[in-house]
Amino acid sequence: AAYELSKHPEVQVTLIEQNVAPGGGAWLGGQLFSAMCIRKPAHTFLDELDIPYDDEGSFVVVKHAALVTSTLLAKVLAAPNVKLFNATAVEDLIIKSDDSVPEGSRVAGAVTNWTLVALNHSTQSCMDPNVIESKVMISSTGHDGPMGASGVKRLARLGMVDIKGMGALNMNEAEGAIVQNTKMVYPGIIMAGMEVSEWTGSSRMGPTFGAMFVSGFAAAHLALNDLEKQKHCTT
Question: Which helix (H) or strand (E) holds 22?
Answer without folding.
Answer: none
